[in-house]
Amino acid sequence: MNATIDIREAAAEEIRFAFATFSLGTVLVAASDTGVAAILMGDGRPALTRELTSAFPDARAVVDETGLEHTTAKVVDFLEAPHRGLDLLLDIRGNGLEQAVWQALRDIPSGETITYGQIAKALPLPATAQEVGAACAANVLAVAIPCHRVVKADGSLSGYRWGVQRKRKLINREALI
Questions:
Q1: Lower Cβ count inside 10 Å, N or C end of the chain?
Q2: DSSP strand pairing (114-115 vs 150-151)
Q3: Where is the Methylated-DNA-[protein]-cysteine S-methyltransferase DNA binding domain (predicted)?
């Protein structure tokens, strides 16, 4: 008897992931063959797992706590002290505008903030503050792509994929260094 193989399933990319706790909740760290593909913050594993599968709908998500133990520890250290940097390869996926916004965000020094409009004006391609906000919302690499450093034109905090309270704490933590 011949077994049939679903080619789509066999060809699906594998995204391995693991969890850890840190001072602002739970973190899910996911890796592809290229590097860290997602750093998601939240309050519980089920919601973070759903967020991961939503971000990578064509991938096969596989729990790998042991295989990612070292990577997860490095991410937690980074989340606790972002000014030290993250010495891991990142698998950054996005369209052209998202990539440009995310690079601009990565250029913001720890402890500083910038407005959505300022980023839009500085990009090498035309964009609005709203488009910058949409790119921030699409980011799945928390703190590694520091969307938390972006504020409204009046300096106040606005939405953040992982909660405004986390955003405030991250900004305050970086300001103390």
A1: N
A2: parallel
A3: 98-175
